[in-house]
Amino acid sequence: MTQTPWWGVPLLAGLFAIGGVVVSQVVTIALDRVKARREDARRWHAERRQVYVGYIMELQRTGQQFYIHREDKEKADELSEPFNELMFKAEEVILIASDDVRAIVGNLNKWFIGISRLHEEGDLEAEVFGYYHEQIAAFRDAVRRELQIK
After folding, report:
1. Dihedral sign computed on CA atoms, order 31, 32, 36, 37
2. Measured torsion, CA atoms of residues 91, 123, 125, 61, in degrees rounded to the nearest 10
3. How far apart are CA 86 and CA 92, in angstroms?
4. How far apart are alpha carbons 53 and 93 in whole angstroms?
5. Angle at CA 71, nearest 5°, toward 126 and 75?
6. Exposed/middle/buried for 140, CB within 10 Å: 0-12, 13-18, 19+?
7. What is the pLDDT of residue 28?
8. How deeply is 49 buried, as exposed, middle or buried, from its count of CB atoms within 10 A (0-12, 13-18, 19+)?
9. How many other C-beta atoms can be found within 10 angstroms of the C-beta atom of residue 118?
10. Could you report the per-residue pLDDT of 63-95, keeping only the tens digit for each?
11. Interatomic CA distance for residues 91 and 95, integer angstroms
């Protein structure tokens, strides 16, 4: 029978130790990547939600201003600031939103542009705001689908 050399056992133990360290490092790196992706997705989700909420708030503020001043043509200058802020918020949404959400924002933008023209002409009636409420509801539904909120 042959006898193992005196250095064989320490060498074998060292190789197993090095192998264990390598495996644990690979697993740690893989878990860190998964965790980083999950955190990025969570942060992106929260960022989109903030942009969408900001847009809805601006929609409501601007719509309310147009509704309150629908019969007062003289208030057109006061309505330009909320209108411009709404268009700014709409561009933020368009940059990050899905196709469904972008389509609804486009519809609302066109509607507000038409409303501002009607307001300047003094032809703004309360009935035109029904479409506005329908589109806000559609926007909320599309955002909920996009963000997978049940």
Report:
1. negative
2. 30
3. 10
4. 10
5. 125
6. middle
7. 95
8. middle
9. 15
10. 888 777 766 666 666 777 888 888 899 999 999
11. 6
Cα 125 to the chain's mean position, in Å? 33
Kindly tell me the burial class for residue 123, based on how many C-beta atoms sit within 10 Å of its own C-beta (0-12, 13-18, 19 or more): exposed
122 torsion bin: left (phi>0), alpha (psi -120 to 50), beta (else): left
Amino acid at 52: Y
Q: What are phi and psi of 69, to 5 degrees?
A: -105, 25
Looking at the predicted structure, is the pLDDT value of residue 53 above 90? yes
Model pTM score: 0.72
Per DSSP, 98 falls in state -
Q: For residue 102, which of 142, 62, 63 has the smallest C-alpha distance?
A: 142
Taking only the tens place, the pLDDT of each residue in 114-138 is 877 776 666 666 667 788 888 888 9
| For the chain, domain boundaries | 47-146
